[in-house]
Amino acid sequence: MNRNTLILLAVICAIIFIAPLVMYQGHGEDDGYFGGSDDAASEAIESTNFKPWFSSIWEPPSGEIESLLFALQAAIGAIIIGYFFGYWRGQRKVE
Amino acid sequence: MHVMEGYLPFMWCIIWFVISFIIVAFGVYQIKKIVDETPESKALLAVSGAFMFVLSSLKLPSVTGSCSHPCGNGLGAALFGPAVTAVLATIVLLFQAILLAHGGLTTLGANIFSMGIVGPFIAWIVYKGLTKANVSSTIAIFFAAFLGDLLTYVATSFQLALAFPAPSFATALTNFLTIFAVTQIPLAIGEGILTVIIWDRLKEYKPKLLDKLGALAPNEA
What we know:
- Chain A: The chain crosses the membrane at residues 7-24, 68-88.
- Chain A: Keywords: Cell membrane, Cobalamin biosynthesis, Cobalt, Cobalt transport, Ion transport, Membrane, Transmembrane, Transmembrane helix, Transport.
- The complex is a heterodimer.
- By secondary structure, chain A is mainly α.
- Chain A has a domain at 62-95.
- Chain A has three helices and no strands.
- Chain B is mainly α.
- Chain B has helices at 10-37, 42-57, 73-80, 82-99, 108-132, 137-163, 169-205, 207-212; strands spanning 60-61, 67-68.
- Chain B has a two-stranded antiparallel sheet with strand order 1-2.
- In chain B, α1 crosses α4 (82-99), α1 (10-37) crosses α5 (108-132) and α3 packs across α6.
């Protein structure tokens, strides 16, 4: 694909994820927006009177630490992809 | 799609754990074979795993007004098949269960089954089917990634409805599908597009390797 098609695809992708932020502007967690679907499922399970029988062996002590670890996860993945794609691109240029 | 720690009856934890263990073990064997036969595919394995790492860390907003995350399992499935992808998913899910209290060790088997087995299996079938019919691999990878992501969440909904069929299995399934699958549709489209972009670059940089792995349509090889 040429560069423009790739850019267009990236833009479409960005719109898909920005649209909800615009659509529900002014709403937040307090009135039930932008919560996680995993948590919603957990609540649905609790409503059947099921008591979770095991809890996480370790939990991030605060939201800050949790976002640190999520960012770390994304960074580890991104650095590996970036490293190899850069390497392959250079390799191809040399060939 | 993550079933939280302790949120499945003990019996179901064991069932999913056993099924997933068998497939992950087969995946480990396959990885060994692939690496022995084509050592240059190691980097591609790393990239497939890394893609899952990135995508499953991104909690994105959906037009339904709630948030969920993509899976990134379509890429690995198209390149290496579902069993290998199950191994990669296990690494991601362990990281999240241990460090993020996201998902869990007791529910690890169930989560591997949805994100590492059902999703990739569907993605792999769709990918192979379309490329065999000479559909461009770039188009095929979109549908593989889209359905791989969506079916991962459908699988979770089934798992939860099986474990908590209250008041009935059908009602519970509809309930969980509404929570998971509907939210997931726009995210799955986004994941499809992102996978297409990565795929396009892979095809540009490593066409011979993709061909060697049998991951291209016959008319592209």
